[in-house]
Amino acid sequence: MDQNNLTALNLSKPRLISVPTPRVLSLGPCELWGVSLAGCRTSLCIPELKIGFDAGFPFPFQLNTETFFITHGHLDHAAAIPFIISQKTLNNQKKARFYMPESLVEPLTEILQLWQKIEGHNYHFDFIPFPEKQSIGINQQFSVKSFKAHHRIPALGYTLFQTKKHLRKEFEGQTKEELVALKTKGIPIDTIDETPLMTFSGDTRIEFLWEAPWICQSKYLFIETTYIDDRKTIEQARTWGHIHLDEVITALPQIHSEKIILMHISSRYSDQEARSIIERRIPQDDRDRIVFFEGR
Ligand SMILES: [Zn+2]
Ligand SMILES: [Zn+2]
Question: CB 70: neighbour CB atoms within 10 A?
Fold first, then answer.
């Protein structure tokens, strides 16, 4: 390859990309750990619930994760899957379940079959096709629901729901025995609230916001914001199946989230640069709820 081609690919000026630094973000009842850097790695997990969203980089804390939700097959979101499966097999851990877009199941299974030959192990894993708008229970309190994301290849986004039971108003003040008696008669004494606690967009164009009514109501909304200034236009972002900060700013009045976390920001922006661009560009009234996700 001659010098001109190198220049065209922008490899003549290598970018110094930092080693990944996972960050911890409180989601209220649980914590989210991980990193997200466009084109390099996205790996998020909630250790308390043993669930993960994407596996683009292997972290030791992911090895306790039992259920992964994979958004799509680009390597910055899926490269760690074979490593995690191999490590779990070596450590005799319970096999992990990976929910993913249907189109990913067959090719990824073939890759894993080849890799177990290379390693001389028998891997244990479940790859499960996950249709859009499907829900899966994590425990009595939490569930995850999928929705369509708009990327260049088939992709999903995921929402973590929290379920809370409340005693119906008409039964407040009743004794424990009276409530047990009502329950025995088959009378429902509780109402059930399902709150969208956290939504993870994966890689997508801005349209994902309107895929389901709960997305813009999520308490914590993680939006991929790959480009954040005029070094890339909205059109260029859309061509690559991504979101530009200009589009997020336009959509802010329709988003009711307590916190909007901007992640998957391109490595062309340093942490400091990204933080200052976001602070400068977000309208005053929204500054308190916008978070730059520093795990990169
Ligand atoms: Zn990506
Ligand atoms: Zn992608």
Answer: 25
Span from the CA of 91 to the centroid of ligand 1 (angstroms): 29
Residue type, 261: I
Average pLDDT, the chain: 92
User: What are the tens digits of pLDDT across the range 216-227?
Assistant: 999 999 999 999
Nearest of 173, 149, 159 to residue 71 by alpha carbon: 149
pTM listed for this prediction: 0.90
- pLDDT value of residue 4: 36
**Does residue 130 lie in a domain region?**
yes
CA distances from 69 to 6, 36, 47 (A): 37, 15, 14
Distance 126 CA to ligand 2 centre (A): 22
Q: What is the CATH number of the domain that holds 97?
A: 3.60.15.10
- Is residue 3 in some structural domain? no
Ligand 1 geometric centre to CA of 192 (Å)? 36
